[in-house]
Design a protein that fits this description.
The protein is an alpha/beta fold. The protein has 3 domains: 178 residues, Leucine-rich repeat, LRR (right-handed beta-alpha superhelix), CATH 3.80.10.10; 112 residues, Alpha-Beta Plaits (2-Layer Sandwich); 174 residues, Phosphorylase Kinase, domain 1 (2-Layer Sandwich), CATH 3.30.200. Helices cover 16% and strands 24% of the residues. Strands 2-4-6-8-10-12-14-16-18-20-22-24-26 form a 13-stranded parallel β-sheet, with no helix packed on it. Strands 1-3-5-7-9-11-13-15-17 form a 9-stranded parallel β-sheet, with no helix packed on it. Helix 4 crosses helix 8. The chain starts with a strand and ends with a helix. The relative contact order is 0.06.
Length: 647
């Protein structure tokens, strides 16, 4: 909703509040007040994607009924409050994508810690600045955790063997830290884990034996300091694997051909190792295969099944060093990412303005955002993304939301190892959502009401601000412009009749001043829009050019909120703090001074619900400028600007 400002201590007066969701308002800044801890009935506190900063208050631990705490995507600093360990009803804990620092808090004596949260299912702490070692007592066999995400931090030391006690785990991420030592041998006790990310650390010792982890679909052990190891035979036994990432892990020997027969296998990245011998792809290879990256190894030969459809990369292998060999496998290539976009076939139909063409060939204003999967079970392909798209649409319609269609685009793996894509949700029956509609749609994602297919794992959604409400659209609709024009014409006729009825004598009296005012009709107006016997303007004041330059930072382009044939419109802040819209005519569109004076007089007197209020004008140093009250999103400004360009 584009809310701005700070939360104050008055928040505590909402004593019966159970759900507070202010997500996706980036203008909400400053600290989270200590008084939030007095909202004793709160069960959901969701502040995703705002601009909050400072420390998370310790008082938050007083929210004993809280079920969901989502503070991700802000600018919080300082330590993770140990008092969170008092929130024993907590199901969802998400503090990711902040600037939190310090160590992971665990209980010591009377001091609480995260290890007390035995019924919590989600620990999401990725993309922070947490440091120190992972405390062994962080994990215990009483825990029911499903997600443990500590990626993209500054953690050191080893992974404690106590992690293997939490056998309910589904997704584990400790990648992109500075962890070292051996990976604990009991990690293969985690037989329900689907996604295991341990890349970009300093692990040493042998490559861990993951025999028995039969649910594993995504494995990333890349960029560590493992000992030289023969290609693990147990990899071929993990029949749920979709993605294997073991880039630069010290692998040696040949890859057994049965490995490529794992039925769900999609992506294989084994580049920068010492794999040798021949690569053989059997005829029963996985028909899901999209990519096999074996660049920079010691492979000397390649035998492929006929009519293969996957991409094979063998650059920087002896196989590609023969001067007589010309093979597409030897091209230097990058991997990862997808070019999938929802197909739209609408016979050259084009949308105007800021509308987007939906998959159902309807021009409208969709609700959009970045959909981020934090521990995907696969990097996906066109078929799987189409399934995801249909799944989102079906679930939104099942929730009776006013949705016509959805589309996915710009799918890639970002710098944090997350799978991200752009999601657009199109309104049903209208060209835009109303405020209730956007609130309902966004809350489905901020509250995690929508659950994607299991293969995609945990996610977060970063919604874009949605300005396309009725007033915004009406100002861009020609039919509404006609209404505005009609209202002004009718008002002008009435005004002129009234003026004619009593103005004859007034005109005779002022005829002596006519010549002077023809040269400059504003010459006798003072800073209040009055002077001599010139008619009084109703509320409109005179501005100097210097005043308007100061209010717009010298008509800076950063303050430009619109333009047209008449010139440009700037947002300005007057010396008294009032926000205004300043319509500055360009040289080619200026009217005569007399006509400009008449326009100012007219606009200062005519009032209509479809007209913004005229605050004042500037006729100074060759400028013809009108100053209006500012309407957020330009809803009526643009309509009035269109009117002026037609006149």
């Amino acid at each position: 909703m584009d809310l701005t400002g700070q939360l104050t201590g008055d928040l505590a007066s909402l004593s019966e509040l159970q759900i507070l969701d202010l997500s996706f308002n980036r203008g909400l800044t400053g600290p989270l007040p200590q008084s939030v801890g007095r909202l004793s009935r709160l069960i959901s506190l969701i502040l995703i994607g705002c601009g909050f900063s400072g420390r998370i208050p310790d008082s938050i631990g007083s929210l004993k009924q809280l079920h969901k705490l989502s503070l991700n995507g802000n600018n919080f600093t300082g330590p993770v409050p140990a008092t969170i360990g008092n929130m024993l009803n907590l199901y969802w804990l998400d503090l990711a994508d902040n600037q939190l620092s310090g160590s992971i808090p665990v209980s010591i004596g009377d001091t609480p810690g995260l290890d007390l949260l035995v019924d919590t299912k989600h620990f999401h702490f990725g993309q922070n600045q947490l440091s120190g070692t992972i405390p062994p007592r962080l994990f215990n066999s009483n825990m029911t955790l499903v997600h443990v995400l500590f990626d993209n931090n500054r953690l050191t030391g080893t992974i404690p063997s106590t992690l293997g006690l939490v056998q309910t785990l589904d997704a584990v991420r400790f990648d992109r830290n500075s962890l070292s030592g051996d990976i604990p041998s009991n990690i293969n006790n985690l037989t329900l884990v689907n996604e295991l990310f341990l890349s970009n650390n300093e692990f040493s010792g042998p490559v861990p034996d993951l025999t028995g982890m039969n649910s594993l679909s995504f494995l990333d052990l890349s960029y560590n300091n493992f000992e030289a190891t023969e290609f693990p035979q147990w990899l071929s036994t993990l029949q749920s694997l979709t993605t294997i990432m073991m880039e630069q892990t010290g692998l040696e020997g040949e890859i057994p051909e049965e490995f490529f027969s794992i039925s769900q296998l999609q992506t294989v990245n084994l580049r920068d190792n010492q794999l040798n011998g021949a690569i053989r792809i059997p005829s029963n290879y996985s028909r899901q295969l999209q990519l096999i990256d074996l660049q920079n190894n010691s492979i000397v030969a390649a035998t492929l099944a006929p009519e293969y459809t996957f991409q094979l990369m063998l650059a920087y292998n002896p196989f590609c060093q023969s001067p007589d060999l010309s093979s597409p496998y030897c091209n230097i290539q990058q991997n990862l990412g997808s070019s999938f976009s929802t197909p739209v076939n609408c016979d050259r139909l084009r949308c105007t303005s800021e509308q987007i063409l939906s998959p159902n060939c309807i021009c409208s204003y969709p609700f959009t955002g970045t959909y981020i999967f934090r521990a995907p079970g696969a990097l996906g392909n066109s078929d799987s993304f189409k399934v995801l798209q249909d799944h989102i649409f079906d679930r939104l319609r099942n929730l009776t939301l006013p949705v016509d269609s959805v589309s996915l685009s710009n799918i890639t793996v970002n710098e944090f190892g997350n799978l991200q894509m752009q999601l657009a949700i199109f309104p049903a029956g209208e060209v835009n959502f109303n405020r209730t509609g956007t609130s309902m749609v966004s809350s489905v994602f901020s509250n995690q009401t929508y659950k994607p297919p299991d293969v995609y794992g945990p996610y977060t959604f970063d919604a874009n601000f949605y300005p396309y409400y009725d007033g915004f659209i009406r100002s861009r609709n020609p039919s509404h412009t006609n209404i505005i024009v009609g209202a002004i014409v009718g008002g002008s006729i009435l005004f002129l009749l009234l003026v004619c009825a009593g103005g004859y004598a007034y005109y005779q009296k002022k005829r002596a001043k006519k010549a002077k005012q023809q040269a400059n009709p504003f010459v006798s107006w003072d800073s209040h829009g009055t002077g001599g016997d010139v008619p009084r303007l109703k509320g409109a004041r005179f501005f100097t050019l210097e005043e308007l330059q100061k209010s717009t930072n010298n008509f800076s382009e950063t303050n430009n909120v619109g333009s047209g044939g008449y010139g440009k419109v700037y947002k300005g802040i007057l010396s008294d703090g009032q926000i205004v819209a300043i319509k500055r005519s360009q040289r080619g569109s200026m009217q005569g001074s007399r006509e400009f004076k008449n326009e100012v007089e007219l606009l200062s007197r005519v009032h209509h619900k479809n007209l913004v209020k005229l605050v004042g004008f500037c006729f100074d140093k060759g400028e013809q400028t009108l100053v209006y009250e500012f309407i957020a999103n330009g809803t009526l400004m643009d309509g009035l600007s269109a009117l002026h360009s037609e006149n």
